[in-house]
Structure formats: structure tokens, C-alpha cells
Amino acid sequence: MSAGTVHRKAAKKPRTTYTPAVVDPKSQQPSGSQPGVGLPASTSSVTRGNPATSQVTGASQSAAAPG
């Protein structure tokens, strides 16, 4: 009986890890296809900021060029 209880606890532990993992892919539906926990989530955030920064840098350069 003791062994059964331990097995049940182990199954519950991974379940808790899955809960946060589901929240991560939810934020990035396109990356949801990939089974990632935090790595894909972090990359998505950085990739999203990359294009935004690129646009800002381009606008800044354009303004500096004519100025």
C-alpha cells in the first residue's frame, strides 16, 4: 500500500510542472506545437522584442540621417 501512495505522489508532481508549461505555450500559440517548458517561452519573448527593437532602431537611424 505504501508503494502505491508513493507512485500516486510521483504522478502528481509532474502534473504540477505541466500546469505552468500549459500557460507558457498558451501565450505563444505558434510555439505551442513544440513541447517546450521555459526555453521556447524565453526565446519567443526575445524574438518578439527583436523585431520591435529593429523597427525602433531603424526609425532612430532614419531620423538621425536627415538630421
TrEMBL record:
Superkingdom of origin: Eukaryota
Region Disordered, annotated ranges: 1-67
Start-end of Basic residues biased regions: 1-15
Bias (Polar residues): 41-67
Full protein name: Uncharacterized protein
